[in-house]
Design a protein that fits this description.
Elements: E1 5-11, E2 16-22, E3 28-35, E4 43-48, E5 51-56, H1 63-76, E6 83-90, E7 101-102, H2 105-114, H3 122-135, E8 141-145, H4 155-158, H5 164-170, H6 179-192, E9 201-207, E10 211-217, E11 220-224, H7 246-254, H8 259-268, H9 271-276, H10 282-290, H11 294-313, H12 315-318, E12 323-327, H13 328-333, H14 335-344, H15 354-359, E13 366-367, E14 376-379, H16 384-398
Bound molecules: adenosine-5'-diphosphate.
Length: 399
């Protein structure tokens, strides 16, 4: 059989991440990012054969323009002939999907229907699917859902204490996100620590621009911190995470905010950015913290405290813990945040190995607790593209 490649597409609200990967070994033949789409300074950056390139995209380029540019690049570099499938990251699969799916008209209709729950992401995902179908009409297209891994959550974990009709009639419930990442790093952790596949308790902390925590029992998600939308849960770069829902009344009735103002504030102006009044970027916050910046210090303290509380809460569904995994840009790189979170949870008996914690950065995986710690904390770089590639290749064989 000839070499098999998969084109992986991840359409964000104003970005497109892409990769052409070898489905056997995960080798990346082409990777890149088109960003600031729908703006006057959209660009596409990519890496191929070890060399990096960057080009401006036309004024107001949208996802379709970005994908057309990518397709031209794929054809120019003669990468198309070994591509056996296109794998799409789709943010919200609602209750329709418990796993990845070959995209049919029914699947497309369900993604469209779910767009109401993810108005920023699902429409971008759909544009990506349509553009890829037009560019590669003969290839199977596969959707890999951020929500699918969490469909195993029990009802008492995913229901809000709201009128039940909101769930029955409108699907208002907790769905959770980052499922591909939680699934990947928990499986890698179980492998690395030789935990029995049918008997383990793992907590994963995916800490990127968005942050979520997941409780995984014997390979399945039993609870996660994001909810109906990615706003719920721990503190993030610009999102508040959990707040008192009564804040909505206060802001609208007392301060004259509109519903849209509240949403913008909670999603885009809160979190690390809101508290520090400096940046949403963890690197900037850490530099300022090391310089003694008061609000950056506060932002880090709140971030770590809330994260530790969330992790401790998952001792309830798991009735114990074998491993805590850090991943995502912050989880994979910030030894400062990892040390602070583990210190809050030192009652669990673990101790941070300072050298190992410093070493496990910049793409290096590794255990960061001492050998004598009763529970292991470790860093595992996530690789959502590789998961999407594998699922797409597997499902393409079945078409
Ligand atoms: P996304 O959720 O968009 O995929 P990433 O997983 O790339 O984001 O994570 C982005 C976050 O990771 C940013 O807050 C960034 O500051 C943080 N980060 C990246 N490198 C470092 C580092 N060396 N130290 C601390 N934080 C880092």
């Amino acid at each position: 059989m000839s070499v098999q490649h998969v084109l992986v597409l991840n359409c964000g609200s104003s970005s497109l991440k892409f990769a052409v990967m070898n489905a056997e070994n995960g080798e990346e033949l082409l990777t890149g990012l088109a960003e600031r789409l729908l703006n006057d300074d959209a660009t596409i950056k990519y890496k191929i054969d070890g060399s990096k390139h960057q080009n401006a995209l036309p004024y107001n380029a949208d996802h379709k323009v970005a994908i057309d540019t990518l397709v031209a690049l794929i054809n120019e570099r003669a990468l198309a002939e070994n591509i056996i499938a296109v794998g799409h990251r789709v943010v919200h699969g609602g209750e329709h999907f418990t796993g990845s799916q070959v995209i049919t008209n029914e699947v497309l209709a369900a993604i469209e229907q779910t767009a109401q729950l993810a108005p920023l992401h699902n429409p971008a995902n759909l544009t990506g699917i349509e553009a890829a179908q037009a560019a590669f009409p003969a290839l199977p297209q596969v959707a890999v859902f951020d929500t699918a891994f969490h469909q195993t959550m029990p009802k008492h974990a995913y229901l809000y204490a709201l009128p039940y009709s909101l769930y029955k009639e409108h699907g208002v419930r907790r769905y959770g996100f980052h499922g591909t990442s939680h699934n990947f790093v928990s499986a890698e952790a179980a492998k690395a620590l030789a935990l029995p596949t049918d008997e383990h308790r793992i907590i994963t902390a995916h800490l990127g621009n968005g942050c979520s925590v997941c409780a995984i029992k014997n390979g399945v998600s039993v609870d996660t911190s994001m909810g109906l939308t990615p706003l719920e849960g721990v503190v993030m770069g610009t999102r508040s995470g959990d707040i008192d829902p009564g804040l909505f009344d206060f802001l609208t009735a007392q301060l004259g905010y509109s519903a849209e103002d509240v949403s913008t504030m909670l999603n885009k102006q809160s979190g690390l950015l809101g508290i520090s009044e400096l940046s949403n970027d963890c690197r900037t916050i850490e530099e300022a913290y090391l310089d003694g910046h008061e609000q950056a210090t506060l932002a880090l303290d709140i971030f770590c405290y809330r994260l530790a509380k969330q992790i401790a809460a998952y001792l309830v569904p798991l009735s114990g813990l074998d491993a805590l995994v850090f991943t995502g840009g912050i989880g994979e790189n910030s030894d400062i945040i990892r040390a602070k979170v583990l210190a809050h949870l030192s009652f669990l008996g673990w101790q941070v190995d300072a050298q190992k914690n410093t070493d496990a950065r910049f793409g290096n995986a590794g255990i960061i607790t001492t050998d004598s710690s009763p529970i292991t904390a470790l860093v595992i770089p996530t690789n959502e593209e590789w998961m999407i590639c594998q699922d797409a290749a597997r499902l393409a064989q079945e078409v």
